[in-house]
């Protein structure tokens, strides 16, 4: 892709004012996206972009890396402890399990470190971030299995860290939102001895089988386009046939199936300048129709990556804080948010 965009690109005057400088810089730089470079370069660029564009680092009482056993080895977890009493001998407290975005192919504990720090600081809850193994080295179902193993770790270590294993919230952006909602809604992914009470889904992937109209709308001019999603999908699902698996495309699950199994409360964010926009909007509606308490925010003039660029886009920081306050309301209904 070159800096000269076709008429298919969304004009900059349709981009939100606080995001237009970032998108203009991306286009002026040639509009090179993840699928346009070698995999290792894409991973390094994502690390650098999250560090450069992310919200400021928040200091917490404790941030520690833990080892979680998985089939074939171990993965890293990062525990963010805000210093509000968890693990100090008081009553067990809710805990957030966070799954980072990046198309199941890029991203790490570090790319989402700033967001997890902010989430812990504002919500007052421990956040456990998961370094699940990435495709194409580890395609589906490994990232999901690793995420489920993290829930098992939380269950087993709950007494040690003061976590309430029956008040777990799963959270994630993009591919991480996909993993989070599968853990929250798929009966086969249930971890015995745990209860998920909420899910925070930030522009989640909900349907890898069917391309919605938003794929056609966002074909170029943004860091994440329809071709980006096709590239991620090809690496995560190398056989292609598993796109219809409900553990891959939870948006294909029926309303009756959701209602029968129960659906945890959900906080959902979708953005209009995103190939995932339509499926995310539909998924929020599906959860609501199934009886879940849903708070859905749709930003029509923002694009994918809003939260990992929230250091430069104030709307992202503001809405992320709203997600953290939603956690407070969910886990402590008697507390009033000023």
UniProtKB/TrEMBL annotation:
Keyword Hydrolase (UniProt): yes
Superkingdom assignment: Bacteria
SUPFAM superfamilies hit by this protein: alpha/beta-Hydrolases (SSF53474)
Keywords in alphabetical order: Hydrolase
InterPro entries assigned: AB_hydrolase_3, AB_hydrolase_fold, GDXG_lipolytic_enzyme, Lipase_GDXG_HIS_AS, Lipase_GDXG_put_SER_AS
Domain Alpha/beta hydrolase fold-3 span(s) in chain numbering: 96-307
Keyword Repeat tagged: no
Active site residues according to the UniProt entry: 174
A GO MF term: hydrolase activity
Family that this chain belongs to: Belongs to the 'GDXG' lipolytic enzyme family.
Protein name: Alpha/beta hydrolase
Annotated organism of origin: Arthrobacter nitrophenolicus
């Amino acid at each position: 892709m070159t800096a000269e965009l076709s008429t298919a690109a969304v004009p900059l005057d349709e981009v939100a004012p606080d995001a237009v400088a970032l998108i203009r810089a991306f286009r002026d730089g040639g509009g090179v996206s993840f699928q346009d470079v070698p995999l290792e370069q894409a991973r390094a660029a994502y690390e650098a972009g999250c560090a450069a564009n992310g919200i400021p680092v928040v200091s917490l009482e404790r941030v520690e890396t833990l080892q979680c056993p998985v089939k074939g080895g171990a993965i890293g977890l990062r525990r963010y402890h805000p210093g509000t009493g968890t693990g100090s001998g008081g009553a067990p407290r809710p805990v957030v399990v966070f799954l980072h975005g990046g198309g199941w192919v890029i991203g790490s504990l570090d790319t989402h470190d700033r967001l997890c720090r902010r989430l812990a600081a504002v919500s007052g809850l421990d956040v456990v971030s998961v370094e699940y193994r990435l495709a194409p080295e580890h395609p589906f179902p490994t990232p999901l299995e690793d995420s489920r193993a993290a829930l098992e770790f939380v269950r087993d270590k709950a007494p040690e860290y003061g976590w309430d294993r029956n008040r777990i919230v799963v959270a994630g952006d993009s591919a991480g939102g996909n993993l989070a909602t599968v853990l929250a809604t798929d009966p086969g992914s249930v971890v015995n001895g745990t209860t998920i009470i909420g899910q925070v889904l930030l522009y989640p992937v909900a349907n890898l089988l069917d391309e919605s109209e938003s794929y056609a709308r966002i074909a170029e001019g943004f860091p994440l386009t329809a071709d980006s999603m096709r590239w991620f999908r090809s690496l995560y699902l190398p056989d292609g046939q598993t796109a219809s698996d409900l553990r891959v495309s939870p948006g294909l699950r029926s309303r009756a199936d959701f209602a029968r199994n129960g659906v945890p409360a959900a906080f959902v964010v979708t953005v209009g300048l995103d190939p995932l926009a339509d499926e995310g909007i539909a998924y929020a509606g599906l959860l609501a129709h199934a009886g879940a308490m849903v708070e859905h925010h749709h930003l029509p003039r923002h694009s994918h990556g809003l939260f990992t660029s929230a250091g430069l886009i104030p709307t992202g920081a503001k809405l992320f804080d709203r997600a953290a306050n939603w956690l407070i309301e969910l886990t402590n209904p008697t507390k009033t948010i000023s």
